[in-house]
Amino acid sequence: MAPLVRIFSKSCRQICRPWGACQAGWRSRSTHPATETSTDQGVVSFPPLQTFSEEESMMKEAVKKYAQERIAPFVSKMDENSAMDQEVLTSLFEQGLMGIEIEPEYNGTGSTFFSSILVIEELAKVDPSVAVLCDIQNTLINTLFSNLGTAAQKEHYLSRLSTDMVGSFCLSEAESGSDAFSLKTRAEKHKDYYIINGSKMWISNAEHAGVFLVMANVDPSAGYKGITCFIVDRDTEGLEIGKKENKLGLRSSSTCPLNFDNVKVPEKNILGQIGHGYKYAIGMLNEGRIGIAAQMLGLAQGCFDNTIPYTRQRKQFGQRIFDFQGMQHQIAHVATQIEAGRLLTYNAARLKEAGRPFIKEACMAKYFTAEVASLTTSKCIEWMGGVGFTKDYPIEKYYRDCKIGTIYEGTTNIQLSTMAKFIDKEYDH
Amino acid sequence: MSGRVLVGVKRVIDYAVKIRVKPDNSCVVTDGVKHSMNPFCEIAVEEAVKMKEKKLIKEVVVVSCGPQQVMETIRTALAMGADRGIHVEVTGKDYENLGPLQVSKIMAALAKKEEALLVILGKQAIDDDCNQTGQMTAALLDWPQGTFASELSMEGDKIKVVREIDGGLETVKINTPAVITADLRLNTPRYATLPNIMKAKKKKIANVKPADLGVDITSRLEVLRVDEPAQREAGVKVETVDDLMARLKEAGRI
Fold first, then answer.
1. Is A59–B72 a contact, with Cβ atoms under 8 angstroms apart?
2. Alpha-carbon span B86 to B78, nearest angstrom
3. Which residues of B fall within a CB distance of 8 Å from A111?
């Protein structure tokens, strides 16, 4: 593993310290350590990955309750109408779920990345569409503004993003998905402003977004090194939001094409530095990946939780269907996969918070949980039998919703290739 | 008068959990079972916070009696908007035997110490369903009480309380300081929003022991046995009235 390689190559005297103790040194530098317990001998023991701080536990409980009472009643209707209910959107802001890591001075909750992950997981158990809205806002939009914004940009946007404004991240185009950096949207410089022309595709949250973070190229001759991130307000002239896609799943999350027709954007609306957009995109997507993993995880768990009670109730041949060995083995297998996905996700999140390398682990978490979600939802329909196939039960929705997990924010193939690159490097010395 | 409201909150087994009795019939299983704030206590906290938002009172102090775990319940109240908490530490056997008489003595002592204008409690706890603590607290303090409140309004230094009683609704006006117990329809408790959960971390929770308040918490009651309700048995259908009479006579009912 990468950290192990680093110790040896530094020829550190601490090689003789056991691996666990080395981890302790790093762990103490993390900003939010999980509560560590000491045994009577005064030895610090390492808590399981599913250990949360009091704050994280309270957040998880609060969101669980809120999701059950304020979102669950709307889920079916939102899916049918392919529309996010305004009340749900408003209550998400009211609960502080749209500005989890934004500081209180900008009206945010002032909490941590791991809290965001727990929130997304809890929301996804009830509705993965609502979870993705919350995920994009927190892990992509808010993070980009917080990390890269000038004082003026932060002042102007962060308090709106935590209070009532949704954001959209615009990278993909009709001709560039995985090959993101071959994007064609062009930004031409004039004096103190830019003119943006082009179009974007598959933009989530677009229906409700008040601000768009648009990746456009200011200098195609420089290739991807011309990609720059522009802040474009919704009401800017020339920005056209197309009709939302009619999707298989995540239907209440709006996904629209965008058209830029001579959209004028002032220079002060550049986020970060010119030509650094590609770096920002990669950086944010590495983190966003963990958010998607949390979404897929919640989806799988929510589907599973809705199915097991049925298997314990339903009787055939004089016994609960849960009691047939064939069923038990399948159920246990799926439960194991979900648990493994959870550990991958939580670990990736904790690594990121600890400031340690996490990209390979984030890819693993996203790739794995998307696969687990597919497996879980497919099996759950089978276990429910005929009723699983009807819209009267929530299971079929989870089945439709999960498929996008292997596609967006980095397809499974891209995740695997990225992981392979890291693995290759690990054996470099 | 301080404009201070004291709210008592109890940590109970969550309402959605299926209760099981220990095999030795000594008590209900609590280990590893989900606990939350008593729903009527949530309503009490909500009412107090609402009064503060309307600027009718100045401070909401929330109190809970029990072991370390009740801190969680106090924090939830703080996240709903209470200003500070008091954890009255009671553990082990004392906690198992803690009942309305002991709690009301503690609440009365604290009400005096904090110079409270009002003490608001839930009408009853969903675990023991005693419906006694509020009334006992008022008696110990010799304060007026407005119990089963479904509506509260301050009128100068008096309080108008609409009470839910068997016959309907009864409106009373009582002097302050007073004890109120909250009934179901008093309000709808708010969710602890995430920003408020964060803010609650900075709020203070004081730790006291019953002895510090001069309260003797020895119980006068001893629980002999706890049993689950009898399983409902199947009924019997009869064809004629004569059959019914015969069966009833047989069962010794008539």
1. no
2. 11
3. 194, 198
